[in-house]
Amino acid sequence: MTQCQRGDRDAFAKIVQMWERPLFYYLRRLAPSEEDALDLLQETWLKAFRAIPTLRDSRTLPAFLYTTARNAAVSRLRIPHANHVATEEAASPNCAFIAFDNADQVHYALDQLPLPQREAVTLYFLEDLSIDEIAQVLSVPAGTVKSRLHYGKQAIRRIISDGDAHGK
């Protein structure tokens, strides 16, 4: 990252190579189509390229990239209630996420979640961000992230166990 901050374009290309797939996956969960997600990804990289020189700690890169991607999606797609703070009582998200055999069912169930829960579940379980990193990306308290994870996991379990997920 230091090389990138000094203007080394090859270093930035390495960052893009390392983070492009996870960011695209995250944006695809927010965007209505693959084409929209690709446009948002391009916008994210442009903004990141301009802002990376201002980062002081390389450990904040994941949260910075996801925040940049989320902000691009929110502003471009005009996502309603993107910053809505849940009022549900926080629950521990530390229990293991149910391992389902059919990834298509999980993705279908994930797509059925309200955006705040879908973002939290995606960032925590599929992108491996910590509670604090997710709170930073979403601009909400850590307790809200825990609550969204709890209710998101419950909803996914319910959708899949009820047989609502397509392909079952």
Can you describe this structure?
This protein has 168 residues and is mainly α. It has two domains: 2-77, Orthogonal Bundle (Rna Polymerase Sigma Factor, Chain: A), CATH 1.10.1740.10; 84-168, Winged helix-like DNA-binding domain superfamily/Winged helix DNA-binding domain (Arc Repressor Mutant, subunit A, Orthogonal Bundle). Helices cover 66% and strands 0% of the residues. The protein is built from eight helices and no strands. It has helices at 2-5, 9-30, 34-51, 61-77, 103-112, 115-126, 131-138, 142-161. Helix 2 (9-30) runs antiparallel to helix 3 (34-51), helix 2 (9-30) packs across helix 4 and helix 6 packs across helix 8.
Number of helices: 8
Derived from helix and strand composition plus strand pairing, the structural class reads mainly alpha
Report on the biggest sheet: none
Order of helices and strands: HHHHHHHH
- Distance separating the two termini: 45 Å
What is the CATH domain class of the largest domain?
A: Mainly Alpha
Number of domains: 2
**Gyration radius over CA:** 16 Å
Describe the global form: globular
**Strand residue content:** under 5%
Spans where pLDDT lies below 50 across 5 or more residues: 83-100
Average the pLDDT over all residues and give the rounded result: 81
Assigned CATH architecture of the largest domain: Orthogonal Bundle
Number of strands: 0
CATH topology (level 3) name of the largest domain: Arc Repressor Mutant, subunit A
Q: Please, what is the CATH homologous superfamily of the largest domain?
A: Winged helix-like DNA-binding domain superfamily/Winged helix DNA-binding domain
How helix-rich are the residues, as a percent range?
55-70%
